[in-house]
Every structure is written in C-alpha cells, then in structure tokens.
C-alpha cells in the first residue's frame, strides 16, 4: 500500500451525513418548476466538477458536457422532443395514454440551461481496463457523472430534469455531434421555485415507489410475488 497517497476514511459527522442523505432523498426530476434566473458560473462549475469526479471504467472519463443556452437551439431540441413525445404517447393504451398526454415530461425551453451529456467510447484507446468484457461500461460511467451532477445541483438549489424522449439522430443533427459519440442525456438545469416531495410521476398516479424489501435478495434471485 502506498500509504503516503491515502486519505482519512472515517464516517462523516452526523451533520455531514445528514446533508448527503438529504441531497439524495430530496433530489427530484424537474420539468416545470424552473425560474428564468441564470445559474452563476461558480455554482455551475462546482456542479460540473462534481460530475467530473464520478467513477469511470478504467478511469477513462468518457464524458463531455455541451452547454446550450441559445433559445433558437433549445427550440430545435424541443421540436425533436415534441416529435418523439407524440410517438411515445401512441405507445400507451386507454387511460394510460390519456394520463401520459397530461404529463409534462420536459423543461427544455423553461430551463435557462440545457446540458447534453455525451460519451466518447474512444477516450482511452481501444482496450480499456474494466470494459474488456462489457462495452456498455463507458455509458454506465457517464450515467454516474450525471448522478453526481444531479446531487450536487440539489445541494446548490438548482433543479435538474433528464429528458430522454428523442430520436438520437435528431439531437445529433441539432448539436453537430459525430456518429461515434454516444448521446447519454439531455439535462435541463435552472433555479427552482419548489420541488415535489415525492416523484412527480407518483404524485400524478403514473407509478409508485416499490418496497425495497421486495427488491433485495440474499444469495439467489427470487421471482417477484
Ligand atoms: C435515464 C433517465 C431518463 C429519464 C428520467 C430519468 C432517468 C434516470 N426521467 C426522470 C424520471 O421520470 C424520474 O427520475 C422518476 O420519475 C423518479 O422521480 P424523481 O427523479 O425522484 O423526481 C425523465 N423524466 C421525464 O419527465 N422525461 C424524460 O424523458 C425522462 N427521462
């Protein structure tokens, strides 16, 4: 062990621990609660720094963050969403379809900042430590970065909404993203008036949080029920 490279690893103080869990429990996906106020550069950089400190396979750090503030560009992104969302609505049936159409599933135009998070599979060369047997590991790493960003934003009082209802090719065309780069998420960021206390999809009757007890198994897989 290279002891000179190690840091202290004890549990956090009660207050620090409470703050970490508070960020986790009160993080919400934001669609409609955005305020128009700009996010300060310092806060944005702290949030992006948190994202950049996520774990990544082979420490490849495959992410990029494309910051989009231009209204015309956001309008193009929204149009790509609107097309896909219409298609999505037709995939549900009956009451579910009606409920789907009543949901607002993005804040692309309302949020002052859009961030397209991408994954570059070539960032660390063709053979990556840890990705040798599962090529999806670089995408998973990028998702870890998004989660760090989401939690740091919560601590900064900034809301984040993840929008995934797009044809990837449409977003690629709008943002000039080359084919070899994967688009992992479109994030809407902005200060917020308030947040839902529970997931909005639960509040609006789409789906409830599952009981953790039914999801944790000892030793062997168990079919539900
Ligand atoms: C990969 C991925 C993709 C999406 C989402 C999340 C994630 C992780 N979510 C947000 C999702 O609906 C939300 O996280 C859950 O409903 C739980 O709510 P809270 O995040 O706790 O508020 C989401 N929400 C939405 O309104 N439109 C969308 O396109 C998406 N896409």
From TrEMBL:
The keyword Glycoprotein does not apply. Pfam families: Nitroreductase (PF00881). SUPFAM superfamilies: FMN-dependent nitroreductase-like. Its EC number is 1.13.11.79. One of its GO terms (molecular function) is 5,6-dimethylbenzimidazole synthase activity. Residues 24-191 form the Nitroreductase domain. Keywords: Flavoprotein, FMN, Oxidoreductase. NCBIfam families: BluB. This is 5,6-dimethylbenzimidazole synthase.
């Amino acid at each position: 062990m290279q002891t000179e490279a190690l840091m202290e690893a004890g549990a956090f103080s009660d207050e620090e621990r409470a703050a970490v869990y508070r960020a986790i429990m009160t993080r919400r996906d934001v669609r409609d609660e955005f305020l128009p106020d700009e996010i300060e550069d310092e806060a944005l950089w702290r949030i992006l720094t948190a994202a950049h400190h996520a774990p990544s396979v082979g420490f490849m750090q495959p992410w990029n963050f494309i910051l989009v503030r231009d209204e015309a560009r956001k309008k193009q992104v929204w149009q790509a969403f609107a097309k896909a969302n219409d298609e999505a609505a037709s995939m549900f049936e009956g009451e579910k379809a009606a409920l789907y159409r009543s949901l607002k599933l993005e804040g692309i135009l309302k949020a002052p900042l859009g961030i397209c998070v991408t994954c570059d599979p070539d960032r660390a060369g063709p053979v990556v430590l840890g990705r040798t047997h599962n090529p999806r590991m670089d995408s998973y790493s990028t998702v870890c970065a998004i989660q760090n960003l989401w939690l740091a934003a919560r601590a900064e009082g900034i809301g984040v909404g993840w929008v995934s209802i797009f044809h990837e090719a449409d977003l690629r065309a709008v943002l000039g993203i080359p084919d070899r780069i994967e688009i992992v998420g479109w994030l809407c960021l902005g200060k917020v008036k308030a947040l839902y206390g529970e997931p909005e999809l639960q509040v609006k009757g789409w789906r409830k949080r599952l009981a953790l007890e039914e999801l944790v198994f000892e030793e062997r897989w168990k079919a539900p029920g």
